[in-house]
Structures are given as C-alpha cells and as structure tokens.
Write a sequence for this structure.
C-alpha cells in the first residue's frame, strides 16, 4: 500500500534525523526555558506554526509565553528567552527579531538546519536539526519529503519532547495542564 510505505519512510527518516541532534543543546534549551522570566517564540511559515505549538505547550505548563508578531506580545528584555526557528536560518523577520532580542539583553536560542546562518550566528545557543533546507545544495542530504517537511516535523517532535521534560521537571500534574486548556474554542 503506497500510503503505508510513505508513512514508514517518513518515520524512518525522522528517526535517523532526530538521532543526529546533539542532546546537549536540547538540555540547554530545557534549562533556558526553566530559567527565563518569559519565553518568546519566532519563526516564519510552517516553522512558525511549530514554534506556536511549543508556546501553547509552555502556556499549559504555566510558563509566561508569547508569540512574536502577535499584537499582545510585550517588549522583550533581559531575563527573557527568544526561541527562533528557521531551517535556513535566513528568514528575514526571524533574523531581525533575534537581533532585537540580543540588543535588549535577552537570551537567544536558535533551532535551524544551517549552522553558519545569520540566525545561528546571533544565537547564544544553536540546535541543529540535520535536515534539508532551501540552502541545501543538490546531493547534500536530500529528503524523501517535499520542501522543509522533515525539518518541521523534527522541530515539532523535539519541542514536544522538550515540553514533556519541562513538565516532568516542574512536576506539573495533568489536571493542572487541563485547567489551562483553552475554553473559548
């Protein structure tokens, strides 16, 4: 069955990719989230959607979290954390907000596929997801999937795993998370 084969291929590709992410960076991100006064997330396109899902999980865990670009997002300052997400590390808005966050004294963590990107150079800590991006040259690690799907899927799984670890360290019971779940849906 072609769909079942596609699912199998995607899962295998995800397993290989996530197995190559350095665990130290993930641990540093967990620690940075726990230490931050407030957490901001930024990213364009589908990477931005994955970052927004992380912001929601952090809110459920009781962390003060904002999505860059929303009208209710306050100014970032020292003691805050910005998580910037972009496979290419060149998304203009994400690079710009990383610069602003650094100038404001906030800590910046980047998650990208491109270690030498402008966004990575601005970050205090960079987590590399070894997946193709728009900067990937032909023959430099291709994906069986379209576009940046592999990066975005890996980003979502990594951020969900980080959320789970944060919840474990905070000792947040499921009923407390449920009490923060949206009721205006």
């Amino acid at each position: 069955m072609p769909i079942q084969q596609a699912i199998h291929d995607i899962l295998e590709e995800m397993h290989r990719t996530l197995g190559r992410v350095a665990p130290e960076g993930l641990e540093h991100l967990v620690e940075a989230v726990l230490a931050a006064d407030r957490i901001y997330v930024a990213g364009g396109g589908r990477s931005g959607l994955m970052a927004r899902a992380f912001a929601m999980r952090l809110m459920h865990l009781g962390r003060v979290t904002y999505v860059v670009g929303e009208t209710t997002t306050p100014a970032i300052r020292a003691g805050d954390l910005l998580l910037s997400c972009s496979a290419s590390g060149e998304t203009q808005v994400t690079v710009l907000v990383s610069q602003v966050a650094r100038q404001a004294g906030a800590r910046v963590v980047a998650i990208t596929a491109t270690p030498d990107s402008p966004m990575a150079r601005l970050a205090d800590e960079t987590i590399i997801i070894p997946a193709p991006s728009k900067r990937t040259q032909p023959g430099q690690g291709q994906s069986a999937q379209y576009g940046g799907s592999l990066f975005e899927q890996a980003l979502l799984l990594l951020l969900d795993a980080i959320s789970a670890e944060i919840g474990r360290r905070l000792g947040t019971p499921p009923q407390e998370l449920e009490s923060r779940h949206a009721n205006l849906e």
